[in-house]
Specification:
The structure is a single chain. By secondary structure, this protein is mainly β. The chain has 2 helices and 20 strands. The strands form 2 sheets. It has an 18-stranded mixed beta sheet that branches. A hairpin with a 6-residue loop joins strand 14 and strand 15. The longest helix has 18 residues. About 3% of the residues have low confidence.
Length: 325
């Protein structure tokens, strides 16, 4: 059951609907799972327009709901603000909205058009900065991955004949970090992703990235890559691997399960023993993974389970100033 308390006034303007208005001073809705506190106004009942400011709070700290795709979703206090208008009886325009918690803010605008049984819509989203570490506050299952950093993004999503359609998209991650098991750690990642409408092709750049994987230390990683479908073309890839400084370019077909790598470039020194050690660790990883069931949440397990089951074909040319055995 829910309880509702409301304080406000309504002016029907002698039924001159274009001058009628509602002033909602305070609306309180309480349910066993949480509460809603809202304020707002609306005017011009022929083509309504107005604004709402609402605070949404769970009944208790750490309250959870269970969804099909997310086994555990923790509710947290949120503030929502929206300004709206109806350009006609079937078109709702969200002139501006903002959704925020104590760490992050999401804002944007949009419009929704109803025509019979069909609905078309457009939503413009952007954030001046989302605290990536806060994702574990809402999805506790992601806590062990220690996601961190600050994410800024802007995109447009709309309905289309074939499903969702995306406008130009840009994402900027500063100081990104994550842990995928004891042997896979990402640190200090500054990433930028820019894509034209519908992600036909995207550009991903990175700077100052360091990581640990398969017992190997990577630092000072900079790259500029073009993503087209599952294939990644690296126009440049520079960094230091276990003391060896590399400068590469090339292409990876089917990046998350590579079938072919074409690599060109070189290093100041190539340590053969480091290559042998890496090969041994990959073989040990495959042996340990043999017989295990595939991950249930594949959408965030790409890095952890991204090593190909079969070794990809290799091509290209590598040069080194010195080779150490």
């Amino acid at each position: 059951p829910a309880t509702v308390d409301m304080d406000g006034k309504i002016d029907l303007a002698d039924f001159a609907w274009n001058r009628a208005q509602v002033d909602l001073k305070d609306l309180q809705v309480r349910t066993p799972s949480g509460s809603l506190s809202a304020r707002g106004y609306a005017s011009d009942f022929r083509r309504p327009r107005g604004a709402i400011d609402a605070d949404i709070s769970p009944a208790s700290a750490g309250a959870e709901i269970h969804l099909k795709s997310l086994q555990r979703l923790v509710l947290a206090p949120l503030n929502a603000q929206v300004a709206f208008s109806f350009s006609d009886s079937r078109t709702l325009q969200v002139k501006a909205f903002q959704l925020s918690d104590s760490k992050s803010r999401l804002e944007g605008d949009g419009d929704f058009h109803y025509e019979g049984s069909s609905t078309t819509w457009r939503l413009h989203l952007k954030s001046p900065g989302l605290d990536v570490s806060a994702i574990a506050d809402y999805v506790p299952d992601l806590g062990p991955y220690l996601f961190g950093g600050r994410l800024e993004f802007e995109t447009t999503v709309s309905s289309g004949p074939a499903g969702l359609e995306f406008g130009r998209t840009k994402l900027v991650l500063r100081g990104g970090r994550a842990v995928f098991g004891a042997d896979n750690v990402l640190r200090n990642a500054d990433l930028t992703l820019a894509a034209p409408p519908n992600f036909k092709v995207a550009r991903l750049t990175a700077s100052n990235v360091s990581a640990s994987t398969f017992g190997q230390e990577l630092s000072g990683i900079d790259f500029d890559a073009q993503i087209q479908g599952p294939d990644w073309t690296f126009h440049s890839l520079r960094g230091v691997w276990n003391g060896m400084r590399w400068n590469l370019r090339g292409k990876v077909w089917d990046f998350f399960q590579p079938t072919h790598l074409d690599i060109h470039g070189g290093a100041d020194v190539i340590n053969i023993q480091e290559l042998v050690n890496l090969s041994q660790r990959i073989i040990e990883y495959h042996k340990a993974r043999a017989g295990k069931e595939p991950p249930q949440r594949k959408w965030f397990e790409y890095v952890k389970y991204g090593v190909p089951k079969t070794f990809p074909a290799l091509s290209g040319r590598l040069a080194a100033r010195r080779v150490e055995y």
